[in-house]
Amino acid sequence: AQSVTQLGSHVSVSEGALVLLRCNYSSSVPPYLFWYVQYPNQGLQLLLKYTSAATLVKGINGFEAEFKKSETSFHLTKPSAHMSDAAEYFCAVSEISNFGNEKLTFGTGTRLTIIP
Amino acid sequence: KAGVTQTPRYLIKTRGQQVTLSCSPISGHRSVSWYQQTPGQGLQFLFEYFSETQRNKGNFPGRFSGRQFSNSRSEMNVSTLELGDSALYLCASVELPLSNEQFFGPGTRLTVL
């Protein structure tokens, strides 16, 4: 079974500082990896996804992530944090069943706080 | 296109009751998945439906069930509610086989008293 580990359940950064949210995965086959963001009382919004094309993936709102197979990592970064980035972030790996559908396995999430 | 819609948004029930939640996927999406989100267990996969057939099921008791209709709308049902069923229930739709991106609805917040 595939799994995802997010290091740090809470991360605080100052406005304008670098954002780094860590994600490590476990998979026996090349995975599809995703980062989602969740704002309070809302569903999940896809930030970016890795599907075995470019290892550096650019997403929405200035976020990007780099797939490193040797480190089994898919860390999320943003050069300059904005107050609106305060939210909970989830890393997920997709598991393809025999039917070809995509079951997502999520990490436990990282709550990002932006300090003014 | 309209996004994934879920009704109701909030629900309060008491232990032992049953509840039905509804999810309308994005037009043209035939795959619908359900997830449970709780502070203790995080996001957990419940089940997935494609063309009215359940193709994958998570590790939940039989009290949790679902179905999908011919228009791809899906419902999930929880019988004999327990306090631990209090959670945010999220629905996601996918435009299989063209894409593997899951689009999530806003969720239904279920509180069991």
Labels describing this entry:
heterodimer, A: 116 residues, mainly beta, 6-stranded mixed sheet, 5-stranded antiparallel sheet, globular, B: 113 residues, 7-stranded mixed sheet, 4-stranded antiparallel sheet, 11 strands, 53% strand
Would you give an account of this structure?
The complex is a heterodimer of chains A (116) and B (113). Chain A is mainly beta. Chain A has strands spanning 3-7, 10-14, 19-26, 32-38, 44-50, 56-58, 64-68, 73-78, 87-96, 102-106, 110-115. Chain A has no helices and 11 strands. In chain A, a hairpin with a 4-residue loop joins β7 (64-68) and β8. The model of chain A has no long low-confidence stretch (mean pLDDT 90). Chain B is mostly beta strands and 113 residues long. In chain B, strands 2, 4, 5, 6, 9, 10 and 11 form a 7-stranded mixed β-sheet that branches. A 4-stranded antiparallel β-sheet of chain B has the order 1-3-8-7, with no helix packed on it. The N and C termini of chain B lie far apart (37 Å). The mean pLDDT of chain B is 94. Chains A and B meet through β5, β9 and β10 of A and β4, β5, β9 and β10 of B.
Topology (elements, then pairings):
The complex is a heterodimer of chains A (116) and B (113).
Chain A: E1 3-7, E2 10-14, E3 19-26, E4 32-38, E5 44-50, E6 56-58, E7 64-68, E8 73-78, E9 87-96, E10 102-106, E11 110-115
Parallel strand pairs in A: 2-11
Antiparallel strand pairs in A: 1-3, 3-8, 4-5, 4-9, 6-7, 7-8, 9-10, 9-11
Chain B: E1 5-7, E2 10-13, E3 19-24, E4 31-38, E5 42-50, E6 53-57, E7 64-68, E8 74-78, E9 87-94, E10 103-104, E11 108-112
Parallel strand pairs in B: 2-11
Antiparallel strand pairs in B: 1-3, 3-8, 4-5, 4-9, 5-6, 7-8, 9-10, 9-11
